[in-house]
Amino acid sequence: DLDNKTDKNPKRSDTMMLIKYIPIENKIHILSIPRDTKVTINGKTQKMNAAHFFGGVPLTIETVENLLDEDINYYVKVDYEGFKKCIDAIGGIDVVPEHDMDYDAYDIQIHFKKGERVHLDGEKAEQYVRWRKNNNEQGYATGDLGRISAQQDFMVKVYEKIKSPAGIVRIPKLLNTVAKYAETNMGPMDMLKYAFKLRKIDINNIDKSLIPGEPKYINGISYYIYDKNKKYNSNPVSKSVSNNNESKAEINKKDIKVKILNSTGVNRLASNYRDKLRDKGYDVIGIGNYDKKLNKTVIKVYNRDDYGTILKGDLKFGKIENEKDKNSSVDIVVILGSDSIK
Asked: In whole angstroms, what separates CA 99 from the centre of its chain?
């Protein structure tokens, strides 16, 4: 929200990407959510970018999870200043603009020539990713959706730079910059672990997509209407496990030890799900009751992240929480909530 000049008040988010790392396939999936996506916040129709304005990161995560039925484990929030510092930390990015970019406003001036290679430092990178149209109204044919595509391509170029010999040596500086200028719930060791895991992924294993839907005016207001009936490959891990023999060999469900707890008070609910999961091949080693009633089922993962993703794909509901305790006697604890009652 460029009109909001105070640091104390939350701002509307400008760009939102859901990035999924798929260890079993060694892939990254980048899913963009248009800022104009129509959502319900506090019982009222709003645009997606209003979630951060009304409730900061917690409400933004909740809104995205409700919209896409996805679990978000980590987040990184960065403002334009932090974005520029991160690009400078990796030594900038080279691009070849596909449009003549000429735009002047009170807070930014953007001038790049079509077809001319340019090296973007942090300042120029901000200009490049924010451009949508020129002062004469010429720009991306699909408006903000065109800008989203360009931003995804830019993120891939950032990834290419980090993978390069010149980029690898800059990873420590980038992580220090993220720690200083970005807000995240990732600890330093998590950031370091994923940084070195992700750099091994081939550039061809990065998928980019936009949530399916279409722009539409409602009562004179422009929205992007998400089409829930058109899937964007939201659970590629589960899909690969059921359709790929090599993935099956890598993860055998009988090796996944599961405990099921019932928070609902409904008789035999835990034993029913024990039978269902055993039928699917899981090693369910125990059931019991949970002392607090939950509305939404929680899947607590103590070992490999992909175990939780696979089990959720079989249950088709639940929220994953990563506990990270390899000394645990179980790999997963499923706490059944009201959403498990069929």
From this structure: 28
The set of residues, in sequence order, having a beta carbon less than 8 Å from that of 38 and lying 6+ positions away, is 45, 46, 47, 48, 218, 223, 224, 225, 226
Rounded Cα distance between 94 and 157, Å, is 8
Q: From the CB of residue 107, how many other CB atoms can be counted at a distance below 10 Å?
A: 8
Distance, in Å, from the CA atom of 239 to the CA atom of 316, rounded to the nearest integer, reads 12
Q: State the Cα–Cα distance between residues 20 and 275, nearest whole angstrom.
A: 31
Q: Whole-angstrom Cα distance, residue 185 to residue 277?
A: 32
- Residue among 279, 278, 276, 288 at smallest CA distance from 257: 278
Closest to 206 in 3D by CA, of 336, 31, 6? 31
Architecture of domain 238-340: 2-Layer Sandwich (3.30)
pLDDT for 265-320, tens place per residue?
Answer: 999 999 999 999 999 999 999 999 999 999 899 999 887 777 888 898 889 888 88
User: What is the domain partition of the chain in residue ranges?
Assistant: 17-236, 238-340
The answer to whether 307 touches 301, Cβ cutoff 8 Å, is yes
Q: Is the pLDDT of residue 7 over 50?
A: no
Q: Are 73 and 190 in contact (CB under 8 A)?
A: no
Please tell me the distance from the alpha carbon of residue 314 to that of residue 312, in angstroms, as a whole number: 5
Distance CA(216)–CA(225), nearest Å, equals 7
Predicted model pTM = 0.67
Q: How many Cα atoms sit within 13 Å of 28 on the Cβ side? A: 20
Alpha helices (runs of H) in the chain, residue ranges in sequence order: 50-68, 80-89, 122-130, 144-163, 165-168, 171-181, 188-198, 236-243, 245-250, 269-279, 305-315
List phi, psi (to 5°) of 62: -60, -40
User: In CATH, which superfamily holds the domain spanning 17-236?
Assistant: LCP protein (3.40.630.190)
Taking only the tens place, the pLDDT of each residue in 12-50 is 899 999 998 888 778 889 999 999 999 999 999 999 999
